[in-house]
Amino acid sequence: MIIMIPAYKPDHSLVALCTELADEAQSRGACIELLVIDDGSGAEFAPIFDRVRNTARTPVTVLKLPENRGKGGALRAGFEWVQLHHPGQSVVTADADGQHLPADILTVGAATESYKLVGTSAIVLGVRTLDDQKTKGQKVPLRSRIGNTATIGFFALATGRKIADTQTGLRGFTPDVLDWVISVPGNRYEYEFSTLLRVTRTDIVLDQVPIVKVYEPGNPTSHFRPVRDSLRIYAPLFIFLAASFAGFITDTLALLFLVSCGLNIIAAVVGARIFSASINFAINRWAMHDGGKRPSTRSSVVRYSVLALMLLALNAGLLEALTWAGIHLLVAKILVELTLIPVSFAVQKRWVFSAASSVQAKPKKLTQQPEHQRIKVSVYPL
């Protein structure tokens, strides 16, 4: 089993992590090899990587990348290295900042190996749901709480599945999914989130193993850029909201134009809605596509039309109900739109523009239950 740790400008916690991993593996009788990826950290960090290579009491390879590729690029380079030098080995990825306990890393590794042994393609997530007894009462940083909550909600909206920790970097991969994982686009933090979004459209088992929550005060070694990397992660949602706003503006302008041309109000409303819907369809068909073969235009048009009619009926019904209840028309309109926007996004992402048939991975079916599933946290549809 290969434990892969991408690192960019690490501190000495990387050395401690590798040493403790080797000790934990020895105490468990586990056979591991460490692959540490120097993601273009620079010459000043070479002594830390030298210490990693010379200190850990287990085979260690330091893969040096000539320039910083971002976390996604570093992980992809590591997967390719494993396929070239250790084909058939499971891979467990862990963060370099020491926020994953060695015992938890090996537990995720054992779960991954159990899937490998029964011939099942799987990705195993170490989800941070257990309190650290040594630091009980220590609060999770606000930035992490907000990020976790937002991505869990977005993931559920986009896929219909609930995952306890979408931001975890502790993940196990059986050997037969590596080709598929390498094919996922993205070079930075969005790569890991994109992997989760895409795997829900495959037959690959997505499992969750509870691990301890460990947060360093201030998270000093994190290179996550809150604004830029969040924009990358939430790009599909932001584009969808922008497209919805553009559709609203287009619909309004087209309505005014058609009325000024002498059309009656009903004809103008229908014409404006068809025009704005066409623009919205084109934008969302591009925005919702995250790789693989696109669904046919005809199929998407039919589904989009069904959704549009459904939303139109809901819009009219809710407006009628709210105004009947005495709510001002403008306030009712805003409430209805805010309610239907997430519904529209979820249906378009999961159904209208879904490309489930484009999945290349062809995993084997589960033939027996791995032992670790007794502690499995289920992935289930909402």
TrEMBL record:
> Its Gene Ontology biological processes?
polysaccharide biosynthetic process; protein N-linked glycosylation
- Where in the numbering of this chain does the GtrA/DPMS transmembrane domain appear? 240-353
- Entry's Gene Ontology molecular function annotations: transferase activity
Question: Which CDD domains does the record match to this protein?
Answer: DPM_DPG-synthase_like
Asked if the keyword Zinc-finger belongs to this entry, the reply reads: no
Q: Name one GO cellular component term.
A: membrane
Q: Where is the protein situated, by its record's location annotation?
A: Membrane
Keywords annotated in UniProt: Membrane, Transferase, Transmembrane, Transmembrane helix
One Pfam family this sequence matches:
GtrA_DPMS_TM
Q: Which residues cross the membrane?
A: 231-249, 255-281, 301-319, 325-347
Q: Membrane topology per the record? A: Multi-pass membrane protein
Give every Glycosyltransferase 2-like domain span: 3-108
Lineage, top-rank taxon, reads Bacteria
Q: Which PANTHER family match?
A: DOLICHOL-PHOSPHATE MANNOSYLTRANSFERASE, GLYCOSYL TRANSFERASE
Any idea what this protein is called? Answer: Glycosyltransferase
- Species: Rothia terrae
Lineage runs:
Bacteria, Bacillati, Actinomycetota, Actinomycetes, Micrococcales
